[in-house]
Amino acid sequence: MNKKSFVRHQCLTLVALFCFFSWGCKDEDYASKLGTPAKASFKVTKVQGKVNTYLLESTSQNAYRYQWDFGLNDGPKSAGASTEAYFISKGTYNVKLYAYGEGGYDIATQPIVVDQDDFTPTLNNATYQLLTAHAWKLDPNSAAPITVGTENNPAEYFGGGALAACQVDDDYTFSFANNAFKLSYKANGQTFNGGNVAPNYNCGTDRSYDVAFTFSTTVQGAGIATITIPGNPPDRFIGVTDVSSNNYRIISISANEMILRSGKSNEVVHQMRFVKK
Fold this sequence. Notes:
Layout: H1 3-33, E1 42-46, E2 53-58, E3 65-69, E4 77-79, E5 82-86, E6 91-101, E7 104-114, H2 120-123, H3 126-131, E8 136-138, E9 146-149, H4 165-168, E10 171-177, E11 180-186, E12 191-193, E13 202-204, E14 209-212, E15 214-216, E16 225-228, E17 247-253, E18 257-262, E19 269-276
Antiparallel strand pairs: 1-2, 2-5, 3-4, 3-6, 6-7, 8-19, 9-19, 10-11, 11-14, 12-13, 15-16, 16-17, 17-18, 18-19
């Protein structure tokens, strides 16, 4: 190695070492400026006089900001050092507190066991009360009682047509009894089997059923409320047997008319017009 190459090599080595130690010092100096990390903890107290309601109070150390996750699958939300959590349904909920300090954050988790359902908000809901006021049937006088399409265009694939004879006498009754929600479908003879092409659509075997249902004001896509029933079509369905899923959204409802849309917003949807029976 000649003299120039040796000097150049040594200079580059010194520069690299200088940069390495400089960065190391900066990291060490930065770390020393951070405060003490938070230590998360909280206590849970049942709120007297409120059903399924709990007071959550942070007992964290070195924390200045808080987020609470009630275990309802909707993620953490900012709140103060104390907040109230309400649960509509019985079950075990893993509640989490995210406590943030100057030197970092910490998470504390506690299970809350709720031993009863609270149906009061649902039973007092105006939409639910209209839904359960009487039985419903598909509108036999509408030119388009059922359309098929997409979320943005519910009639994109099928613009409607007259009901089959076996659809006209179908009825659906939503009710609450014996501490449970029940949907009763009566075919009164035959059930219309939905499908894309003949002979898949026809009047066939009576598929009457009684099944539990859930009602929620949480809606994915258009609508004001969501109805879900267990099982899969064609064994369980509302309106027609070939719906994409047993997720139904109430688009609008009055004392005498209801627009119901089957399917989630990313699925093929059936939009159905029901009237009071």
